[in-house]
Design a protein that fits this description.
The protein is mainly alpha-helical and about 80 residues long. It is built from three helices and no strands.
């Protein structure tokens, strides 16, 4: 799966599952903190969504992989089953 396709699916999942307005969600928007302001409960939604979409388990993964859509995309691309 191409990186752009992974990023688009992650963005779509965040918009649908966490009700983040698509117009404020950029690939480099900080998900936790400043830009979007997600919390630990939201991270569980992200973990479940990534697992459902790509079969990639993110439980216990370092929080830097959750920084933004770019970081989530990189993790999925690097860890997805080919």
């Amino acid at each position: 799966m191409e990186r752009a396709e992974v990023a688009a699916k992650i963005k779509e999942m965040l918009v649908e599952n966490l009700r983040i307005p698509e117009e404020i969600l950029e690939d480099d928007s900080e998900l936790f903190g400043g830009d979007i302001g997600l919390d630990s409960v939201d991270s569980l939604e992200i973990i479940a969504g990534i697992d459902d979409l790509f079969g990639v388990n993110m439980t216990g993964v370092d929080k830097t992989n959750f920084r933004d859509i770019n970081a989530l995309t990189n993790y999925v691309v690097e860890n997805a089953e080919a």
